[in-house]
Amino acid sequence: MGTKITRRVGNWARIAAALAMLWPAAADAAWVKAETERFVVYGQGREAQVRDVAMRLSMFDAALRVANPAAAQGPSRKLDVYLVRGIREIQQVAPEAAPTLGGFYAAGELGAFAVADANEMGRDDVLFHEYAHAFMLENFPAAYPGWFVEGWAEYFMTAEVTSRTVTIGSYNPGRLYALFAENWLPWETVVTKAPFEVPRQDRSVYYSQAWLMMHYMRSDPVRAAQLTRATQAIAAGADPVKALEEASGKPLGELTRGVRLYKKLPMFVISDPLPTPPEIKVTQLPPSADDLLLYKLRLERDGGKAQGEQVLADIRARAAKWPGDRMAELTLARAEFALGDVAAGEAIVKRRLEQDPKDIETLLVAGLGQIQAGDRDLAQQAARYIAARPLLIKAYGLDQGDYRTLLNYVRSRSVEPEFPNDNDVNALLTARAMAPTVRASSIMAGQLLLMRGRRAEAQAVLSIVANDPHGGEAARLAQALIDGQETSAGKSEVAAPTQ
Q1: What gap in Å lies between CA 366 and CA 368, rounded to an integer?
Q2: Whole-model pTM above 0.90?
C-alpha cells in the first residue's frame, strides 16, 4: 500500500486540557543504542522505549519528506539522540539549562547531538521541534525570518505518530494556552524580530503566534504560495512586513485579522509514510557508560568549560573505576586535553592507537585534543595544530562522513602562511554541507570566503547564521562579518568554537 494523505479538522471550541502520556523513570540500568538509517538513539535500560523512539523519529522524518517533497530522499548524516532521566541529567550535559527544559540540540566543532527527557516522551514536541530545525537547515538552507523558522518547527513538532500514520497540524497545549491567556504581541513585532529580541516573558506568546501564523498560511494552497514568495523575498533582503504585504496583496493588519479569526485547524493524515519498517539494530553500551556517557556529551558540547575543575575531577574519579575500558579512557583523554594534563591525554591515545591504529574515535579524540591543547596554549598553538593534522587525515580516510575531521583539519591549516587556499575553502564547505546545523562551520566558511575575496558567497553563508533565531553570539558575529565590522584576516582567530 502506498503513502496516502487525507485531511481532518480540529476545532478550538472542543479543545480541552492537554493529556500527556508519560513514561515512568527507569531504574538504573545499562545504556542501550538503537540505530536506523537516519538516527542513533541512546537510552537507559528499556530497549523497547529506545526502539520506539527510533521508530517514531523514522516515521516523523518520512512524513516530513512526504510533506516537503523537495527535500532530499537519500541517506543523510545520522542524528544522535540521547534519552535522559529528568532535568538533573539534562543539567549534567548543559549546566545552565533551565529547570523546565525538556531537551535541546547541540551542534559544535566537537560534536552534534540531541538530548531529550525520556519522562516527557509521550508527546515528542521538544525532540520533533529540534529535528524539524535540523531538517530545514539540511534541506532548505536560507536566511529565513525568525518567526518563520520557529513557526515551521512548531507546526511540524506536534505531529502525532502511530504505527501506520503521522498526523500533521495538531497543537501544543502550552502554545494554545498562551494564545487564550496572554496578551498578544503586535504582529509587526512577531514578523520582524527573532525570539531573543523580545522580552523573555513574551517569548511563549511569540512562539504561539508564530505557530498560528504558520498554520494559517499553510492550511490553504493560495496562502501557502504567498508564504513561499514572502520568505524568498525576505531571505533575499526584503523588509519582512513589506514582503508579506506584497505577497498576500493585503496590508499586515488585514492579513493578521484573518489569523485572529482562524478557528479550525486542518490536519493532514499521512498513511504509511514508511511502507517498510526501518531496520533497527540494537546494541548495549559498556557498563562504564552509566558513569561517563553524559560527561562525554558535556565535553563534546562545550569542552567542559563550565565548572571545569570539578568536571575534570569527576571524570578522573569515575574513569579510575574502569581501567582499560575504551569509553572510560577516551572520555578521560578528552577531559585531559580540554581541561587537564595534555601529556596524560596523549599517553592514553598513544596506548590505544598502538593497540588499534585504525580506531576512528581514538584518532578523532587525539586530533581534536591537539587542537584544544593548542587553543589552551597559544605559544604552542602552531606545533599542536601541525601535530593534529596527520591524525585527522587518517581519521578522515577511514570515515569520510564525519564533519569534525574536515572542520578541524582546516583549523589546523590556519597556522600556514598560504592559508586559506582553494582546497581549504572546499574542504570547509564540504564539512558545512555534512552538518549544516553547526554554526562554527558557517562562520569559518564565511571568514575564509571573505579572505579569498568571495564576498557574495560569504554573505550567502553568513546570512543563514545571522538570521538564526537561536544564533546568539554566532548570529552577532555573522552579522558583523557581513557588515564588515569584524576582521577576517586574523588566522589564529579563525573559527573560535561556537555553539
Answers
A1: 6
A2: no
